[in-house]
Amino acid sequence: MRKLNVFEMNRISIDEFKKSKKNPLVVVLDNVRSMYNVGSVFRTADAFRIESIYLCGITSCPPHPEIHKTALGAEKAVEWKYYKEALEVVKTLQQQGYEVLAVEQVEGSTSLQDFAPAENKKYAIVLGNEVKGVCQEVVDNCDGCLEIPQFGTKHSLNVSTTAGIVMWEMTRYKLSPIK
Fold first, then answer.
1. Domains of the chain: which residue ranges?
2. Model pTM?
3. How far is CA 167 from CA 49, 63, 83, 112, 135, in A?
4. What is the pLDDT of residue 178?
5. How confident is the model at residue 71 (pLDDT cuts 50, 70, 90)?
6. Torsion 102-103-105-110 (CA) sign
7. Largest Cα–Cα distance in the chain?
8. Angle 35-47/159-170 helices, nearest 10 degrees?
9. Which fold, 20-175?
10. What is the pLDDT of residue 10?
């Protein structure tokens, strides 16, 4: 097997990305403190052609060298907005017809492996702070919670790793491929 070079990968330009059809998935970052995690989420959102990212609370916004270091320019392609409070974003997205799901370990959560996104439905996922997770008030106002099954000695994953797993599952299942 031979690795493809960058020209053989048929990557689209930022302008083409902005004009393209997106997967009906929004990512909400609730007080994510690491700019490297923020950048990584942008890069993954670009890879799966996610609709947009909402940056809330202490979550840093582009442009910033630390975000760019992991985003590698994806922060220029993926639409984003900043809100002071994630709760405001959750309520706004629900009014716009999104089903909003926190990714958090809670009583009654749905295991990601058991979740089947409905066709023709818009979703938003809320990911939380690296230490405290998604704010309880935000969890209380979401339509449900998804949990990634874990089998080791740790009870959490890095927020950018979590974002990648959930975005992949959401896009591979029914929201994609984009044609």
1. 20-175
2. 0.95
3. 10, 23, 21, 11, 20
4. 56
5. very high
6. positive
7. 51
8. 10
9. Alpha/beta knot (3.40.1280)
10. 87
